[in-house]
């Protein structure tokens, strides 16, 4: 694959759209004009409520869905224009950890064969060497080599997600999309999986797109965070900056809902309660998509779509309050 002329960025998403035709003229605008870049070796958190389009964004980036419009550049190459050998090379360099550890593992395959499938497809090793590689991967994610001969139903949710992580590492990717990898797990297991992902990143120089709806957990793993609402990005900033100074009214509302362990602060701080339901992505509001629930909406919010603009260094927001 070609070298990226902008070596800092492993991934550049430019004006990405993914629309689904529902028939009878109805179109679901799951992802609508999303742009962001991810630096080599960092974790970019993508957060928002259920149905905001974050998982569809991840699946379009990895080419499970064709893009309706826009570009996804990975190491400088357009993912949706790859052909032949380049597709296989791309599939080796970008992997995905799926949300549901119960549905994403083939129940008829042993754990060893699940992890070894990618090794076989890419011809990385065979025989004893393949076996040792599978054992090594199981131990890397905190499981035992004897687990290789068992089937997925014999494991807990947390263990299954570790198997999913081992599978994604088997072909030594550069970039991993983690699509809500902890949302189906018990709270006590979530931190273990996040810490495992952080350790693997340090040891292997991985880059992550970490998709989640839990803003508190995303802060622990992300360098930068993008906040999505109804198919569009509302705000993008450094993780600490976003928590210290959220600018978009939607981000402010999301952060106000995170409980703080100090009872004094928790008692006095203001909760922002959003009115109404999330509109349908089939028929989104005109102008700013958040305006129907925004406590600071102005007449111009209904008339035109706010652009994602840099209003402070490396802090981008799509809101007319900052024009």
TrEMBL record:
SMART domains: AAA (SM00382). It comes from the Bacteria. InterPro entries: AAA+_ATPase (IPR003593), ABC_transp_ATP-bind (IPR050319), ABC_transporter-like_ATP-bd (IPR003439), ABC_transporter-like_CS (IPR017871), Oligopep_ABC_C (IPR013563), P-loop_NTPase (IPR027417). Gene3D superfamilies: P-loop containing nucleotide triphosphate hydrolases. CDD domains: ABC_NikE_OppD_transporters. Keywords: ATP-binding, Nucleotide-binding, Transport. One of its GO terms (biological process) is peptide transport. This is Oligopeptide transport system ATP-binding protein. It comes from Tumebacillus permanentifrigoris. The lineage of its organism: Bacteria, Bacillati, Bacillota, Bacilli, Bacillales.
């Amino acid at each position: 694959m070609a070298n990226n002329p902008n070596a800092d960025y492993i991934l550049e998403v430019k004006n990405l759209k993914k629309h689904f035709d529902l028939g009878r003229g109805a179109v679901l605008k799951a992802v609508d004009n999303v742009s962001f870049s991810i630096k080599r070796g960092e974790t970019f958190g993508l957060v928002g409520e259920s149905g905001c389009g974050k998982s569809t964004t991840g699946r379009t980036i990895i080419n499970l869905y064709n893009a309706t419009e826009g570009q996804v550049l990975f190491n400088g190459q357009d993912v949706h224009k790859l052909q032949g050998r380049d597709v296989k090379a791309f599939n080796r360099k970008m992997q995905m950890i799926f949300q549901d550890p119960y549905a994403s593992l083939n129940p008829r395959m042993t754990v060893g064969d699940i992890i070894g499938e990618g090794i076989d497809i890419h011809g990385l090793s065979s025989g004893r060497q393949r076996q040792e590689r599978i054992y090594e991967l199981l131990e890397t994610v905190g499981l035992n080599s004897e687990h290789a001969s068992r089937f997925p139903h014999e494991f807990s949710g947390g263990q299954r997600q570790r198997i999913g992580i081992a599978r994604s590492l088997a072909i030594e990717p550069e970039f991993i999309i983690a699509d809500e990898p902890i949302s189906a797990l018990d709270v006590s297991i979530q931190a273990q999986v996040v810490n495992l992902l952080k350790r693997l990143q340090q040891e292997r120089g991985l880059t992550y797109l970490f998709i989640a709806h839990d803003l508190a957990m995303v802060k622990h793993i992300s360098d930068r965070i993008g906040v999505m609402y109804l198919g569009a990005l509302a705000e993008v900033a450094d993780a600490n900056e976003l928590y210290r100074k959220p600018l978009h009214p939607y981000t402010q509302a999301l952060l106000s809902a995170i409980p703080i362990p100090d009872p004094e602060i928790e008692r006095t701080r203001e909760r922002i309660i959003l009115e109404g339901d999330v509109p349908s992505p089939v028929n989104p509001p005109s102008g700013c998509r958040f305006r129907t629930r925004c406590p600071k909406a102005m007449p111009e919010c209904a008339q035109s779509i706010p652009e994602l603009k840099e209003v402070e260094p490396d802090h981008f927001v799509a809101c007319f309050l900052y024009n």
